Amino acid sequence: MPPPRHPFRAGFRDCLPFVLIVIPFSTLFGVVARDAGLDVLQVMSMSVIVIAGASQFTALALLQDGAPVFVALLAALAVNLRMAMYSAALVPHLGAAPLGARALAAYLMVDQSFAVAVRRYEDSPEMSVSEKTRYYFGCMAVVCPIWYGCTLAGALMGRAIPAELSLDFAVPVCFIALLAPLLRSLPHLFAALVSSVVTIALAGLPWNLGLPVAALAAMIAGAQAELVLRRRARKEGHA
Q1: Is the pLDDT of residue 174 over 90?
Q2: 57: closest CA among 170, 146, 148, 222?
Q3: What are 30-67's pLDDT values in tens digits?
Q4: Distance, CA of 104 to CA of 108 (rounded, Å)
Q5: So where does this one cross the membrane (predicted)?
Q6: Where are the domains of the chain?
Q7: Which of 54-63's residues contact partners 24+ apart within 8 Å by CB, and which partners?
Q8: pLDDT of the residue at 168
Q9: Which side of the chain, N or C, has fewer Cβ within a 10 Å radius?
Q10: How far apart are the C-alpha atoms of 118 and 87, rounded to whole Å?
Q11: How far apart are alpha carbons 90 and 186 in whole angstroms?
């Protein structure tokens, strides 16, 4: 695939379909956070600082269950450790970018934009570092402003939504919508399976501590599956 003539616009366009996920997901977080007792400033501070729906919902659920703050922070960190793997995957593409651009890229990183950007880089290896950086920020320009704006909208209207409507069902639906497009290989599927099994097995733990344990187990399982596949591929190559 040839590199795009206008990388920023191309990134913006390629990430537009994810608006259908980001709008309800971020709005739901604002609603649920307000229902949990956070004020608008606290809701927005959490979204602006963290920018990670999965870990935000995890921390919020733990705080609602009365878990200590450090437990909620630990669980959110465990869920968000995938960002470290994303960062490592981007080093070959953005590692030579200016420090300020890399710092901003790290702050703005989200699942959808990362997946779109890496796919484009793999399809267009001849893109320069400057083009890759502009494409990346084009992706972020779709997701992040909508995340902030819809979180605020959800926080402002949260208390106005009748309790009998019960929006809790939308949380797992949003997680499924986020997760499904990312399951593109056997290690991904294996990690998802391990996380599901461990989460169910440890459902009785207090403060939902099964979630961080499941996240850690899934990352280990996925990494091990990747190593096994690479060793098998090397053996077959030497055969």
Answers
A1: no
A2: 170
A3: 888 887 788 999 999 999 988 887 788 878 877 877 77
A4: 6
A5: 15-34, 40-63, 95-114, 135-157, 189-207
A6: 7-182, 183-239
A7: 54/79, 54/80, 54/175, 54/178, 55/79, 55/80, 56/29, 57/29, 57/32, 57/171, 58/208, 58/211, 58/212, 60/29, 60/32, 60/33, 60/36, 61/208, 62/207, 62/208, 63/36
A8: 57
A9: C
A10: 11
A11: 21
Tell whether the model's pLDDT for residue 75 goes beyond 90: no
Supply the pLDDT for residue 207: 72
Distance CA 147, CA 24 (A): 9
- Per-residue confidence (pLDDT) for residue 148, from 0 to 100: 94
Task: Give the whole-angstrom CA distance, residue 149 versus residue 48.
Answer: 10
With beta carbons less than 8 A apart as the criterion, state whether 147 and 47 touch. yes
pTM here is 0.73
Note whether 55 and 79 are within 8 A (CB). Answer: yes
Nearest alpha-carbon partner for 151 in 40, 49, 76: 40
Distance of alpha carbon 227 from alpha carbon 187, whole angstroms:
9
Q: How many whole angstroms separate alpha carbon 47 and alpha carbon 148?
A: 7
Whose CA is closest to 97, among 125, 69, 133?
133
